């Protein structure tokens, strides 16, 4: 009996130890697994526009692996098919989105701010003696009011870029209107001039988006040059990409994040060297 108890105790000990080992080893990969997406290039950029505690309220679609950064304008602007909805408006909007500026002109537009980087961005723009067009997100304006105030004070053009950065073309008319109003209310109080320019997130819109824009007596602004500044942390690559594409009339879409800010002095100098005049988007 004594021997048997001993063997039982030994076996239990072995089982316990093995169990612990398994728990310890299985703990490592799971910890790594939860860390590795953050280290991947895509995920590094994903939270940038919202990484200051300002999370999109409808950001529930990110449970699947993220292939592309959230919040940045990706690819060419396009009119997407409207989702079928009984509340869909039948009226046809007459708005024609703006894709370009005048001959010999180039407009730099900065989306998704303000962020914790905007103060630095404004400093760089001031040093380069340039005004840009910002497309601010409503909830970010509420989170960084000082940056909006400063951008207005410095004479930059303030455009609107939704409240929470959703795919508006996938929303009903009513939801689009609510989204539009809630963010705009957070932004208009900063500027004594009316905010008249709207850029739909991802450049995705439909007739309802145009109708909502039109009802607010605003213009829809897209772009014709996308250097994909969100896809790299290397400022020199952003400079190269912008200057390789820039031409008369370019509206360049860029974003409020560190590598773009670092790239801007050379971008601005390069555009001026090509003989183009830097302007804000006319309204
Ligand atoms: Zn955006």
From TrEMBL:
Q: Provide the alphabetized UniProt keywords.
A: Hydrolase, Metal-binding, Signal
A GO MF annotation of the entry reads:
hydrolase activity
List, for all copies, the residue spans of the domain called NodB homology: 104-279
Which EC class is this protein assigned?
A: hydrolase
Q: Which residues form the signal peptide?
A: 1-23
Question: EC number(s) of the enzyme?
Answer: 3.-.-.-
Q: Which InterPro entries match?
A: Glyco_hydro/deAcase_b/a-brl, NODB_dom, Polysacc_deacetylase_ArnD
Output compositional bias ranges, type Polar residues. 55-65
Pfam families from the UniProt entry: Polysacc_deac_1
Q: Where are the transmembrane segments?
A: none
Looking at the record, which segments are called Disordered? 49-71
Which positions are tagged coiled coil?
Answer: none
Protein name stated in the entry: Polysaccharide deacetylase family protein
Q: What is the scientific name of the source organism?
A: Paenibacillus aestuarii
């Amino acid at each position: 009996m004594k021997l048997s108890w001993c063997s039982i105790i030994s076996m239990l000990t072995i089982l316990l130890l093995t169990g612990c080992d398994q728990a310890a080893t299985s703990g490592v990969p799971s910890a790594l697994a939860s860390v590795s997406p953050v280290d991947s290039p895509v995920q590094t950029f994903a939270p940038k526009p919202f990484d200051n505690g300002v999370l999109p309220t409808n950001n529930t679609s990110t449970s699947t692996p993220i292939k592309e950064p959230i919040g940045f304008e990706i690819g060419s602007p396009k009119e997407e098919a409207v989702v079928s909805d009984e509340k869909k408006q039948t009226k046809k909007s007459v708005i024609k989105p703006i894709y370009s500026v005048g001959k010999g002109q180039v407009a730099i537009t900065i989306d998704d701010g303000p962020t914790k980087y905007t103060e630095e961005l404004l400093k760089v723009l001031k040093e380069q003696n340039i005004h840009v067009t910002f497309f601010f997100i409503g909830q970010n304006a509420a989170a960084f009011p000082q940056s909006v105030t400063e951008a207005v004070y410095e004479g930059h053009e303030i455009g609107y870029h939704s409240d929470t950065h959703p795919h508006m073309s996938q929303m009903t008319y009513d939801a689009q209107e609510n989204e539009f109003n809630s963010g705009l209310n957070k932004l208009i109080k900063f500027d004594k001039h009316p905010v008249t320019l709207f850029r739909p997130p991802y450049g995705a819109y439909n007739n309802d988006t145009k109708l909502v824009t039109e009802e607010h007596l605003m213009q829809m602004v897209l772009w014709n040059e996308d250097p994909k500044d969100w896809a790299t942390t290397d400022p020199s690559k952003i400079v190269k990409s912008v200057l390789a594409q820039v031409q008369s009339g370019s509206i360049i879409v860029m974003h409020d994040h560190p590598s773009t800010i670092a790239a801007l002095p050379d971008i601005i100098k390069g555009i001026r060297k090509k003989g183009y005049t830097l302007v804000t988007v006319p309204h």
